[in-house]
Amino acid sequence: MEIKFECRKSLWFGIKTFLLSLIILGIGISAFFISDLWIFGLIIVFIGIIIPLVKFLELSSQRIIFYENKIIRTMGFFTRRQISIPITKIVAVTMNQPFLGRILNYGDVFIDVVGRWDANCIGVKKPIALKNYVEKVMDQANYSELNTVILEK
Predict the structure, then answer these.
(1) Which of 5, 44, 105, 139 has the CA that lies 20 to 30 A from 22?
(2) How far is CA 40 from CA 20, 23, 47, 53, 112, in A?
(3) DSSP of 15-84, one letter per residue?
(4) Which phi and psi angles does 75 have, rounded to 5°?
(5) How many CB atoms lie within 10 A of CB 14?
(6) In contact, 124 and 130? CB cutoff 8 Å
(7) Which H or E element spans position 133?
(8) pLDDT tens digits, the chain, 153 residues: what are they?
(9) Is the Cβ–Cβ distance between 55 and 79 less than 8 Å?
(10) How far apart are CA 72 and CA 62, in angstroms?
(11) How many other C-beta atoms can be found within 10 angstroms of the C-beta atom of residue 15?
(12) 95-110 residues labelled b (16+ CB within 10 A) or e (exposed)
């Protein structure tokens, strides 16, 4: 089965966390050199190192893959979890791109799906390309199965 489009989180999405960790590291290093607070400074430095590491693992372990007839969402670094939905259940697609996201080319794409989880792509690279791809797939999809699902409920 051929991959048509892959959605991954942008590392730029974690820039606020990285800047916060730099501030925490600065506070920790300055507290470390004060003789009475060196243990406190060491703890703060450790926290300043752990926060961006956890954010990086979170950003790199989530992806959504679009195939011809289905979407597969994969999550988790230590424990993998996969969810699959058919393309014909997509109802709508919405995009949100903040100012910083427009500059660094990341944003949020929300894909509404009937009867299951929504394929929300938060902080993804190239959100406009993803939105255009999903809209193209929606135009080409056979919605006879979707109409049956809506009419049964």
Answers:
(1) 105
(2) 18, 15, 11, 20, 47
(3) HHHHHHHHHHHHHHHHHHTSGGGHHHHHHHHHHHHHHHHHHHHHHHT-EEEE-SSEEEEEE-SSS-EEEE
(4) -135, 155
(5) 21
(6) yes
(7) helix 127-140
(8) 677 777 777 766 677 778 888 888 888 888 878 767 778 888 888 888 888 888 778 777 777 888 878 888 888 877 788 888 888 888 888 999 989 889 988 888 888 888 766 777 888 888 898 888 888 888 876 655 544 444 454
(9) no
(10) 11
(11) 14
(12) bebeeebeebebbbbe
Tokens of 116: 């299951």
Looking at residue 57, its pLDDT comes to 80
Question: In angstroms, rounded to a whole number, what is the distance separating the alpha carbons of residues 129 and 132?
Answer: 5
Alpha carbons 3 and 50: distance in angstroms, whole number: 34
CA gap 107, 124 in Å, rounded? 6
Q: What six digits make up the tokens of 103? A: 């500059």
Rounded to whole angstroms, how far apart are CA atoms 127 and 67? Answer: 18
Residue 86 to residue 117: CA distance in whole angstroms: 12
- Could you tell me the pTM of the whole model? 0.67
Token match 């506070």: residue? 27
Whether residue 124 contacts residue 7, with contact meaning beta carbons closer than 8 Å, is answered with: yes
